[in-house]
Amino acid sequence: MNLLASLPKGDALDEQAWCSRHRGILSILWLHVLGVPLFGVYMGASPTLYLGGGGLLACIAVAARLSMVRRRLQSAIATCGLMTASALLVHLSEGQIELHFHFFVMMPVIVLYQDWLPFLVGLQFIILDHGVVGTFMPDMVYGHTGGQTHPWTWALIHGGFILAECAALLYFWRVNELAQDEVRASEARTRMIIETALDAVITTDAAGTINRWNTQAESMFDVPRTEAIGKSLTTYLSTSDPSTEPGPITSYAGLVPGAILNRRSEMLGHTCQGTSFPVEIAMSCLTVGGTQQFTIFVQDISERKQQEERLHRAKEAAEAASLAKSQFLANMSHEIRTPMNGVLGMTELLLTTPLNDKQRRYADTVHNSGTSLLHIINDILDFSKIEAGRLVLEYIPFGLRQMLTETIGLYHEQARKKGLALSVTVAPDTPDIAHGDPHRLRQILTNLVGNAIKFTETGNVAVFARPDEGDQKLVRIEVADTGIGIPLHAQEKIFDSFSQTDGSITRKYGGTGLGLAIVKQLVGMMGGHLGLVSTPGQGTTFWFTISLDKSSSRVSELQPHSSNETTVAMTAQQ
Ligand code: ADP
User: In the predicted model, what is the mean pLDDT of residues 182-201?
Assistant: First the structure.
């Protein structure tokens, strides 16, 4: 049972392979049409035999090409021709043992058909002409006395050889058949993948001539594969850049190495009606046996492009609306600030007049609320100005140490009231005089130090300034506190506008969530970076770098400076 299953099935050859093998086998037969008569002349045999033999072989060779004869029959006829040639050679040589090998050599030739019919025809020929004739008319087959006197023995010896040869041939035939089945299955798989792919899949040869065009390509380009195959790829695809001439596929790959091969690129697809549409292609090259094959996956990106266009327009509209909103806010805040200053000024004046306790309390509340409101309005005004791109930075020389000390000094009283130590430390190599915008730098510091004091109940708030380790042109300023800290999840968005850690903190400490957003924008405008390190419950360190052009001139005019590290402790912890 197993033996039968391991025998070749005999149906592995496709039309193309059969045709080429049949042509080769017929050429061998035609060689014999000439060779057999020549051999007969050489052997001095009867002309009737060798001329008749040659003629017979020629007729067989012609019959084996007749198109009306079916393929398998043509193979069987060609086999008869080769076997007749073997028999003629044996008989013309009067049974010379060397010519017997001709039969053995013809069998592998016949197995090239990978078909049982010619194989069995060939085998039967050997059995009849060699076995039966050799046994019963040994003089015709064996030219030596051994064969003539013991024909059965010689028939058995030759039969053994033939059997061994056939077993080996059947084995290799089966192995070959299995390999061909595997190739066919793999080709079928590839074809199925290509046919069911969502993209159009096109393959071309090295000159860019299309040799495969899948169903998706048919519907995408509206061109049937029968029409597309054989055309140049440039008929259907061109570069989207009109200045680049579309050329054969090799020149795409050759002219711009790496620009098209093995990466996604955008091109224009062309239908047969002359309409164009944007496509994204991915092209790869496979070299098999020295021949280049290009595979191109094509995706119609018309919809994506339209969506991108819509998104782009929506983004522009949103940006324009945001700009208009920022401008409106900037104008409105400005308009509110002016009367607010009036309210505050008048309240301050009112507080200098004789008031009873109740009136003073009311006026104080008006003043405090007004100050908070003005603070918020100022933040909104700044933020809107930055968003609207209307904030212009100053560029003037100023005393960095002095500005730091003075700004931090403003918080002396506030820190003292909360019992916090407030210090500022400036490293000796920090520039004394810098060029930049002192007003905005002060605003950054005010926000960070104000927050540090606001969110710290015990401990200290310390400010450090030193040249940045990575880039000496930058100054790094840190504001460290021992306050409530910021949880990790809140750290990521703390610099977004209106962002606060959580609702309970807002309720307890107040604020708008605009301060850090403004600080981030200002630091960015000054060419620096901003970051923070925080452990909830232990404290927070905000750091930022700013690029302030160092200037050595006019130091004395601006402030006395010291080259030593300056540490100013504002207040001792109480
Ligand atoms: P505001 O303080 O007006 O709410 P900010 O933008 O200055 O706005 O701060 C946003 C939030 O960041 C604060 O509400 C607070 O939750 C958190 N935060 C800022 N600085 C600190 C700090 N030093 N320690 C703890 N939390 C802070």
Answer: 88
